[in-house]
Amino acid sequence: MDGFDSESLYEQDRLHVWHPLTQHQDYSHNHPLIITHGLESTVYDINGQSYLDAAAGLWCVNVGYGRQQLIDAALRQMQQLAYYPLTQSHPAAIELATRLASYIPSTPHIYFSNSGSEANETAFKMVRQYWQQQGFPHKTKIISRFRGYHGSTLGALSATGQPERKRNYGPMAPDFMQVSAPYCYRCPFHMQYPSCQIQCAEDFERRIQIEGADTVAAIIVEPIIAGGGVLIPPPGYFSRLAHIAKDYNVKLIVDEVVTGFGRTGSLFGHELYNIKPDIVTMAKGLASGYMPIGATAVSDEIFHTFLGATDSGRHLRQVNTFGGHPVACAAAIANLNIIEEDQLVKQAQSKGEYLKQLLVDQLQNVPWVGDIRVQGLLAGIEIVTEPETKTPASDAFMRLLGRHLIKQGILAGKATDVETWHNNILIIAPPLVIHGDELEQIVTGVAHTIRQVGQAPPIHV
Ligand SMILES: Cc1ncc(COP(=O)(O)O)c(C=O)c1O
């Protein structure tokens, strides 16, 4: 590609850029792609090679790359007011908060931050302060689920149910604990739906009873566990969970960082289950990754306990320098306009149906495919060495799969560093603007690659 000296960029990258989830010693044969530009669902690397981005970056570029309307909005905002903190206010934050409140009227108070991790950290602080101010100082515990992911900062990581992500970073923050995930393919209770009577939801009740409801502040859940392997809960799970939270006076935080803004075929994932959370957190698709932004949306009931005399100390004592950055807010507003104008939520639903059909048609008889889980444009393909034993494919197998897909011009996601020897889920979550023929190309490529890697001699990569 013109204007780039690829050799020296690779060398500088090797020397100076510390990449997440990457073993740097392998750089020479396992270096990252250096991506230079993108359009719709395709990105291009420094050598001019194109790739279908079946992972939408990190599952966030919902409106696709190169959207001029969004770029123009960000530029206009930068020209008008490049920065101002939300210790005061500005029109872009006001417009975005009002818009978000109109989408989820039961959580109409919006606190802005810069990422999903921060949005969740904020939610944890809010519920703890809420209970303090309600006169329940011991309600501090946060219950989440194994395989769930809530972020990289230490509070959000403590809520994360992925031991590999926590390894070497302990001790974790106290008062965070996990219960079983809704994982029907590998039911933690060795039962089957519906005769299981949704034990994975009941697990919350058991845990609350063991801990004592007077010590539990909140439950945090993703509508669909995304990075942990696209775990779609069975029917009835969320309504039972919402009942348990209500019965035991525990707040329900729904982490919509991946599932928000159309990903699952509804604007927010929790709409699929007809529940009203106390707090909704969001980030990624809020500005489709064009700018970093996170938000924590809060119910009237929680917000009102923060009201009091100026010196009552009841206000939220947290500030983020860049939270609600005007350019990020302007980008988010333009992003939401595109989602509405292009009817991307509806598109995600119908394209998701097509993706599901393609995956079932082309993968269900591939010997290494144990399970296929799809909701909207979020799909997980569980790779096993034998379907009978459900033995997870190794990390080396999964890495090789990823590399072969890249050779075919397809960037897919995968569960990474979740649990030792249980990272065997390939994840497809493309931009919501992806075309039908591109979905076909992805699924054909995935089917071909799984066969190719599966038939290769045992590998150590
Ligand atoms: C469900 C969920 N919550 C929170 C986060 C953390 O978001 P961020 O990486 O923006 O901090 C992620 C990131 O992947 C996520 O998948």
From TrEMBL:
Family according to the record: Belongs to the class-III pyridoxal-phosphate-dependent aminotransferase family.
Signal peptide: none
This protein's name: Adenosylmethionine-8-amino-7-oxononanoate aminotransferase
Pfam families: Aminotran_3
Keyword Transferase: yes
InterPro entries according to UniProt: Aminotrans_3, Aminotrans_3_PPA_site, PyrdxlP-dep_Trfase, PyrdxlP-dep_Trfase_major, PyrdxlP-dep_Trfase_small
GTP-binding keyword on record: no
GO molecular function: pyridoxal phosphate binding; transaminase activity
Keyword terms, alphabetized: Aminotransferase, Pyridoxal phosphate, Transferase
